[in-house]
Amino acid sequence: MRHGIGYRKLNKTSEHRKALFKNMLNSLIKYEQIITTLPKAKELKPQIDKVITIGKRNILSNKKRLFSKLQNKASVSKIFDELSKRYSTRKGGYSRVLKAGFRTGDDAPMAVIELVDRNPDAKKVDKPKKVENKEKLKDSKVEKEADKK
Fold this sequence. Notes:
Elements lengths: L13 H18 L1 E5 H18 L4 H11 L2 H14 L8 E8 L6 E7 L14 H19 L1
Antiparallel strand pairs: 1-3, 2-3
Helix pairs in contact: 1-2, 2-4, 3-4
């Protein structure tokens, strides 16, 4: 019988698994959508739902609890500032797992895990704007030409 076997071990040690899910939780909170393998996504879904549920009650003990789990101030503040307000009327089911085909290298089943009612601009958080890059390139070319003269 399968009593007491409540999660997938994913062929990793417990420390590696904890670190993996902490990083995936932080990435999912930051970008609101990530692509990973299907078993990892299925294990991550209950964890992100519990984290958001904890964040809906804005009390100090919950902030400390989330910080001990996530160890990232930006993620904790985003949960309490944005996500708790977004999901205040929703009673659960804050994330979804969508199958996304198979990986080309090893044919592993891939999935997209995303927050329901996500902000589409959240994926562009770390990407620099193209306009700024062009201006920087022009400035650097002008500086290089001035150095040559």
